[in-house]
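Suppose a colleague, Dr. K., hands you the sequence of a protein chain of 489 amino acids and asks what its three-dimensional shape might be. Before reaching for any lab equipment, you can write down a predicted structure in token form. Begin with the sequence itself:
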Amino acid sequence: MSRGGAAAREAAKPQDRGWAWMVLLAAVLLQGLTLGFPSCIGVFFTDLQHEFQASNSETSWFPSIMVAVLHGGGPLCSILVKRFGCRFAVMLGGLLSGVGMVSSSFCQSISQLYLTAGLITGLGSCFSFQAGVTVLGYYFVRWRTLANAMASTGVSLGFTLWPLLSQYLLDEMGWRNTFLIFGGILLNCCVCGAIMRPVQLASGSLQSPKPAEEPGRRAEGAQLSNGASSPHPKLQQQSRRTVCLQMLQKYLAFDIFCQNKGYQIYTIGVTWMMMGFALPHVYLVPYAIQNKVEERKAALLISVIGLINIFIRPLTGLLSGHRIFTGRRIYLFSLAVLLCGLSNFICVISAEFSVLIIYCAILGIAMSGIGALTFQVLMDVVEMDRFSSALGLFTILESITLLIGPPLTGLLVDITGDFHYVFYNSSFFLISAALFMVLSFCALEKKTKLKEASKVPLDNSSGYQHNEMATDPQPESQPPPAVMYITSI
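The predicted structure, expressed as tokens, is then:
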């Protein structure tokens, strides 16, 4: 290989410099527009109830569907990215988000909001966010960890700004016109997607579908179609079943869930935790308004949580990366979940604005720990070559509990007429999840040590696998995974 050819290839690589930093800026904006957006829904909760004469449970389905689809649409986004590339997925997501919110401004019933703002906007936000995070893997190699950390600050900025903007627009022009304006704002995801042009290396595009794969797919399809006239229909059926199983194993790692005890415990714990995690985001503003807190001040509460996240989340990420926490991040994560659960009792004691500010400060610190550690812990318990698949199943399971948690709690509030049950429920799920994960991992660690002491060989697939490779930069010769289902909490 000539030196001139090597220099040409090096010059063709755009990673870690030049346009990559514009892409990072677009990713920051994308995360603020998508993941930060659901934080403002609580501002409209009371107005939507009055407009549609809906109960707490009926109204809470709207943000629940949005958040659940945002988190659980990862596998669909993966297929879209592999087929059309990251830029197309981001721009399609922006279009869907904008159309969803514009349509929401004309809704005549709460059930129509489930479809427009819940499903369409949620799916669009999922496409834009996850494809936007994926493209960072193509543009950054040496500084990939730093780029992802910087991009995540967009979530905190969104948490801070969306509620304040929402309350201002709501006071000035009502919820329908506000949703119409939100549709225009979310269309800026398309602008961010346009910035994320495909990465062109000397060997070709990393984001475009590989042409070599298409003939293989056509040949595979031809075999299946020819199988219809084959004298062996059982072989054709087995072939189709094998393809389906391979697809499920690729995008939803059920084999890892059954074999890897650490992944199993962590997935169950986080899924259970999500039943209570989103409740304060949905009900805090209505709770404050019901207790005579001014609407502008009530909206400020969510912004306080986002403001604290801006500063605490990066510090938590740096702290957890210290070698003293190697293999112990699950306990740090559980501590953050426990603090989040205990903080809810502050709201039960008093609903004064000054007390709620203290609550939001403590909740913001705990949320920063949860958001910074969720996927670091997952990288500890799953081998990196299966991380994308494991994360696909992980996000789908947590999206189920994110979907049903707020409506079930809203039903309880409708029956009892007491908003305190929101925080009782949240505390129950968070505290029980934290204790479950701590005790289970302690038992698993003890069992592992006993096996090592007795010199019984451990099956790597069933033990608590620790992997620190996630913090190291990947070699430039290896392209990043086609898509990573990354969500932020």
